[in-house]
Amino acid sequence: MRVLSIDTALSACAAAVFDAEAGKVLASETLALARGHAEALMPLIARVMQQAHTQFSELDRVAVTIGPGSFTGLRVGISAARGIGLVSGKPTVGISTLSAYAAPHIANEDGDAILVAIDARHGQVYLQVFSSAGRTVVAPGVAMVRDAVEAASTGPARIVGSAALLVASAWPPELEPPRLVDPQDAPSIQWVARLGAVAPRPEAAPTPLYLRPPDARPQDAARLPRR
Hints:
With 227 residues, the protein is α/β, with parallel strands linked by helices. The protein has 6 helices and 10 strands. The chain has helices at 37-51, 71-88, 97-108, 145-152, 164-169, 189-198, and strands at 2-7, 12-19, 24-32, 61-67, 92-96, 113-121, 124-130, 136-144, 157-160, 180-182. Strand 2 (12-19) and strand 3 (24-32) form a beta hairpin. Helix 3 (97-108) crosses helix 6. It is globular. The termini are far apart.
């Protein structure tokens, strides 16, 4: 199985081609990018496909991060993935950004829980807590930083994600400190691909995982009066 993976959910624009039978990534590229995903993504995908010596018809599926993350970034990545899947006739699977962050740490199997925390701004984080075996302990949601700390402070923990340092700085001194603090700006595109290879065949096209409404709203004063 060959999987094209795409991630534009956070501060990166990334793609990879993964060969599941060989157990290796054939090609990948990640650009640190806070904005401009729409302009950068398709040329990046073209480069990765060329480096992997793979035609779109040779893919078995397309995997894309569905959030939580940037509202604009999510739409860019999901639209591209769905378009490629439609044209090539391949299924498109959605991978949560939270799961992609947790995947390499779950693979380590060191027994500690994993708190994934993504900066949601305004003193909030998107979070999910996983057991060391990958089971969800705290479901995906949005919470204040102090509540995120409380959710993961029942035992030894690893904190990963773009808000890892923010959560670690609020860790109560009387508790055992986190075993690991891994402040990645975006998950590894290679793990998005690996999760995409083992995900169940989807029954529908992926849609964004929004855990809260967008911050930007139309201004009433800017609206034109109706006639």
